[in-house]
């Protein structure tokens, strides 16, 4: 076996070297390929750029080579002419722009504003003058009317005066006539008397008439006075009108003078502006002339250039022709190059592919070999390992001789433990023994390799075995401050999975179950009282599964804490006395790790079963009855079945009695095949517990001792002794009490097997 081991290791080293070499080759090949493709890309790029350049050159030359030289010259000149014309136009435009610019500022100049103001004033004044004139005309009209009326009144006055004078004349004549008549009548007294009498009569009449006339005269005189008064008023009015008119006329004159003045000012300003404008135009014109001159000079220069360019043109034509030829040939050349490059690339790719295939084949072979090696190693090391853990003496152990320490250790061998039982020292050898001072951390250190192999797709079972109070729960669950294997294992799984996240996708799920009186219950389910069944997978894979068992996907420590708390709460609420109940049931935490290698598509599934077994103490002996007895029987049966299964597996028997208990049936696929099992046997060091301690240690050593060769195994035991059969007061009596089969005492077997295994371990 050692020879084969060393041979295998050598083979492994050789293969690793080969693998490294091939990887280097592959890397080199890849580099080559990359540089080649880059080079080709660069070539294609430069060729493209050249092609572009040549096309541009061709188009340029084509435009230059439009016709004969004379025509070209003419065309050129025409173009030049056109250009100059445009320049000229531009100059004119500029000039116009300048003129416009010169005028434009007047828009904002103060003169214009002043002008506008004056004009406004002027129009205002004119309007006023107009108004005044209208008023004047009105007054004139009034005066005219009044004058007319006056003339009328005068005329009437004259008429009435004439009438009066006439009347006076007539009256005075009649008076004279009357006086003459009186004189003549005096001379004719008779007659006269008569006449006097008539005259007297008549005179009265005349007097009356006179009176009338006088009153009339009076009235007329009054009227004349009145008319005179009116006339006077009218004259006064006329005078005032005339005065206003004079005033208005003076105002008009004044306004007109102002207007004149404003107009004069405006004219002056306009004059000044005109002058400025003329000046600017002159300036622009002179500038344009200068520019024009420069343009003409330029034109002359261009003409001379044109003359010198002609030979250059000839050489360019020549070049163009050669380039044309090159361009014609270029696609062919390019195609040729591309074809060869493509061929090279595809060849290189093909080579890389074949190398890759080869490498992958080798890698797979290597993987298989590694797995084989691993399996072999596991087989050699034993895939069932048995550890012992001694808890410290606690307050619960009491005081006095009962609580005395009965367990001692070997300073040179951490696999050995001595128990003082009834005055005799019995020694046991396990794979490793943890003394009371061993910390949870130390215990886990020994376990973690098993936990990580779960990620590689192995199934793992870790059992805590021992009497109640020996520390099973402490080892598996631990305390909040100092967690046990359960939490540490999950934490480790998380960190490992994170480390492999670059290539692998992992999913971690947990389930928690309990087996009590051979009934399986889901600790995370909604119906914790429901009994679950274990069934064969319908896919024909032979795998077992539990329909209805709750699985929680966990991604962090917080998730696990929640799950644990949930399960714990369930258990607490379901049971009146948790401690008692838990000591009589098996508690399982099942962690499933499913992985997918993204590069190869390889899938792995590993299961980690962490089992806190029921207390192994022998209840039957104390004469228990009823349910207590039933519980004890179930516990005994399932623990014996576990021992049987482990025994059958280790001795490679054809039939493994998994179905003898719920526990072994449930864990069937995690116990068989490449699976790994760890039995952590918990013991109490107290004197009063030595009997149970002895039983537990015997169990441990027997599980371990099966590892001897198959011949001795066969000779050793036909079947695993039941729990009851383990009950023995002394190691010697236990050996002889096992169902009539010959079973060597631990002392006889262990020393030999241990020395053989130690040799194997040191060589491996
Ligand atoms: P079990 O689960 O086997 O019945 P427990 O794990 O409940 O036993 O342990 C019983 C008592 O002993 C508990 O109080 C526990 O804290 C204590 N105990 C067990 N193992 C250790 C240890 N290694 N270090 C300290 N205390 C321990
Ligand atoms: Mg417990």
Task: Briefly characterize the structure.
It is built from 17 helices and 15 strands.
Describe this structure in words.
This protein is of the alpha/beta class and 764 residues long. Among the domains are: 288-381; 384-705, Kinesin motor domain (Kinesin), CATH 3.40.850.10. The protein has 17 helices and 15 strands. The protein has helices at residues 2-64, 69-103, 110-187, 189-381, 440-453, 472-476, 485-499, 557-574, 578-583, 626-650, 662-666, 668-671, 690-705, 710-716, 723-726, 731-737, 746-763, and strands spanning 384-390, 407-409, 416-421, 424-429, 432-434, 460-466, 504-516, 519-522, 531-532, 535-536, 544-545, 552-553, 586-597, 603-612, 676-683. Strands 1, 5, 6, 7, 8, 9, 12, 13, 14 and 15 form a ten-stranded mixed beta sheet that branches. A three-stranded antiparallel beta sheet has the order 2-3-4. The chain has a two-stranded antiparallel ribbon with strand order 10-11. A hairpin with a 7-residue loop joins strand 10 and strand 11 (544-545). Helix 3 packs antiparallel against helix 4 (189-381), helix 5 (440-453) crosses helix 7 (485-499) and helix 13 packs across helix 17. The longest helix has 193 residues, at 189-381. The termini are close together. Residues 707-764 have low confidence and may be disordered. The site of magnesium ion has 5 residues, from helix 6 and helix 9. Residues 745-754 have a biased composition (Polar residues). This is Kinesin-like protein. One of its GO terms (biological process) is microtubule-based movement. GO terms for molecular function: ATP binding; microtubule binding; microtubule motor activity. Residues 715-764 are annotated as: Disordered.
């Amino acid at each position: 076996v050692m020879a084969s081991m060393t041979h295998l290791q050598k083979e492994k080293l050789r293969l690793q070297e080969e693998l490294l070499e091939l990887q280097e080759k592959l890397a080199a090949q890849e580099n080559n390929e990359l540089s080649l493709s880059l080079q080709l890309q660069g070539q294609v790029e430069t060729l493209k750029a050249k092609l572009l350049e040549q096309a541009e050159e061709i188009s340029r030359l084509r435009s230059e080579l439009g016709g004969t030289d004379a025509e070209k010259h003419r065309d050129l000149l025409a173009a030049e002419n056109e250009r100059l014309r445009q320049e000229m136009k531009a100059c004119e435009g500029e000039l116009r722009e300048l003129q416009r610019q010169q005028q434009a500022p007047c828009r904002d100049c103060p003169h214009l504003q002043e002008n506008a103001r004056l004009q406004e004033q002027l129009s205002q004044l004119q309007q006023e003058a107009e108004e005044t004139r209208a008023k004047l005309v009105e007054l004139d009209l009034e005066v005219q009317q009044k004058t007319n009326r006056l003339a009328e009144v005068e005329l009437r006055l004259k008429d009435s005066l004439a009438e009066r004078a006439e009347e006076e004349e007539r009256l005075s004549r009649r008076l004279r006539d009357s006086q003459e008549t009186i004189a003549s009548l005096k001379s004719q007294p008779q007659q006269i008397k008569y006449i006097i009498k008539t005259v007297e009569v008549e005179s009265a009449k005349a007097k009356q008439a006179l009176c009338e006339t006088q009153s009339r005269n009076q009235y007329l005189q009054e009227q004349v006075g009145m008319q005179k008064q009116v006339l006077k008023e009218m004259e006064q009015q006329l005078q005032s009108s005339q005065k206003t008119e004079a005033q208005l006329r003076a105002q008009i004159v004044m306004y007109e003078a102002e207007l004149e003045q404003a107009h004069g000012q405006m004219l002056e300003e306009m004059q000044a502006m005109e002058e400025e404008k003329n000046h600017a135009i002159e300036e622009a014109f002179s500038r344009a002339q200068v520019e024009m001159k420069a343009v003409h000079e330029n034109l002359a220069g261009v003409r001379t250039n044109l003359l010198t360019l002609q030979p250059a043109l000839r050489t360019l034509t020549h070049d163009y022709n050669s380039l044309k030829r090159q361009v014609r040939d270029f696609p062919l050349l390019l195609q040729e190059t591309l074809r060869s490059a493509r061929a090279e690339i595809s060849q290189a790719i093909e080579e890389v592919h074949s190398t890759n295939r080869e490498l992958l084949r080798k890698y797979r072979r290597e993987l298989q070999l590694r797995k084989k090696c691993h399996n072999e190693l596991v087989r050699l090391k034993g895939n069932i390992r048995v550890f012992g853990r001694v808890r410290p003496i606690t307050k619960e152990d009491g005081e006095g001789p009962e609580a005395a320490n009965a367990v001692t250790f070997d300073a040179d061998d951490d696999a050995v433990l001595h128990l003082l039982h009834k005055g005799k020292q019995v020694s046991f050898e396990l794979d490793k023994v943890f003394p009371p001072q061993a910390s949870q951390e130390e215990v886990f250190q020994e376990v973690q390799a098993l936990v990580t192999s779960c990620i590689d797709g192995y199934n793992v079972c870790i059992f805590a075995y021992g009497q109640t109070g020996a520390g099973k729960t402490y080892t598996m669950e631990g305390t909040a401050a100092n967690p046990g294997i359960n939490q540490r294992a999950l934490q480790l799984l998380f960190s490992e999975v994170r480390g492999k996240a670059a290539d692998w996708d992992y999913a971690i799920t947990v389930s928690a179950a309990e087996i009590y009186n051979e009934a399986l219950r889901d600790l995370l389910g909604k119906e914790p009282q429901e009994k679950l069944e274990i069934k064969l997978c319908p896919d024909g894979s032979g795998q077992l599964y539990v329909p209805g068992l709750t699985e929680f996907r966990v991604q962090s420590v917080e998730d696990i804490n929640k799950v644990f708390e949930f399960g714990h709460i369930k258990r607490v609420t379901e049971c009146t006395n948790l401690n008692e109940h838990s000591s009589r049931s098996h508690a399982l935490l099942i962690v499933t790790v499913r992985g997918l290698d993204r590069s190869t598509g390889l899938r792995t599934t590993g299961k980690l079963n962490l089992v806190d077994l029921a207390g192994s103490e022998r209840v039957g002996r104390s004469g228990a009855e009823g349910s207590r007895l039933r519980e004890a029987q179930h516990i005994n049966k399932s623990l014996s079945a576990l021992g049987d299964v482990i025994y059958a597996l280790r001795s490679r028997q054809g039939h493994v009695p998994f179905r003898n208990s719920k526990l072994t049936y449930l864990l069937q696929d995690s116990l068989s095949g490449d699976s790994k099992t760890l039995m952590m046997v918990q013991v109490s060091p107290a004197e009063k517990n030595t009997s149970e301690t002895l039983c537990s240690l015997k169990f441990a050593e027997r599980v371990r001792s099966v590892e001897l060769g198959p011949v001795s195994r066969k000779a050793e035991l036909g079947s695993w002794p039941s729990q009851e059969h383990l009950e023995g007061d002394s190691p010697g009596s236990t050996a002889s009490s096992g169902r009539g089969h010959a079973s060597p005492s631990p002392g006889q077997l262990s020393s030999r097997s241990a020395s053989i295994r130690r040799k194997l371990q040191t060589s491996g």
